[in-house]
Amino acid sequence: MFYTMLSITGIVLVIGLSYVSNVRARITDVILFGDSYTDQSRQHSIANGTYPGKDYQEVFPPNDTAADGGVQWPWYLGLYGNYTIWNYAVGGAVCSNNLTPLYEELDVSTGQQAWFIQDHIDAYKTSHQKLLLDPSSFVVVQFIGTNDVGIGSFLTTDEAANVSLPDVADCQLNSLKSMHALGARNFILNSLIPLQLTGLYSNSSAPTIYYPEVHDGNAWNKGMYNLVHSLNRMLSDGIDVLNAEWAGDGRIEWFNTYDLFKTMYNNPTQYFNGSIPANVTGHCHQCPDPDDYTQCGIGDCTLAERDSYMWWDELHPSEQTGRNLAAEIFKKIEGNS
């Protein structure tokens, strides 16, 4: 899907990448791969039978809401940077269904990249193959991993046989290499967030709508902390290897989403400004009975209160958190982060 945001009246936005010389105002397009932390409506379109094909138009509130309860952060990124956004993320996705086949949604390494090829590669796999975008005009942002390490996978020891965490790290890095082979040259790889701060992976053992059974919350909390830190370290180290391998013919920047979320968590009044005091431990969207989805929404916070919350539900960040993320990603693209 793509959309273009108009310039904000009275504001001059200067865009560029710090790691490419003399490129101010060149970045016009942002390509995004990921899961429900990024997806606006692709997963819902797949579920309702309107398969998102070439030039897919995302669906926004009030017709559809993202996993943050409203509009996902890429829309705000497009607004802040006057970018055309191509959001290929799918809720429930993993890096590769061959490694961590959780929901069988279109994964980053094959399904989502196939959409990019459909939109931006002419004569694919022929002698006349051509990238339809100027490599200097776009940046690829990859933000995946939450489902790879969570329930139904590594945290609950449900990963496929002979699959290890380094395999997941290699998948993410190889996905970037595949995009490089297609002609992309500017990349941002987002780290995993501190998932141990979410309601789902907190030290509470109470059932949630995402896992409606009593469980060992303390073990989950510690296990998730370890998984997130381990995968983030592998990815960060892997970026250095790829950048050295490419020797200037392309560049991956590391975006420390983990630290940003910890900063928001530890300084809530600087980031959350709804009609009630900032809240980084609770969540807006309520599901009173973890065994009954039909009751979800009973007891939700009000519209005026939403921007006070860091979390929309037990797993997903709020729309306000997404705005904060978009602002920082924009700074990264601009070279000021």
TrEMBL record:
The keyword Hydrolase applies. Keywords: Hydrolase. GO terms for molecular function: hydrolase activity, acting on ester bonds. This is GDSL lipase/esterase.
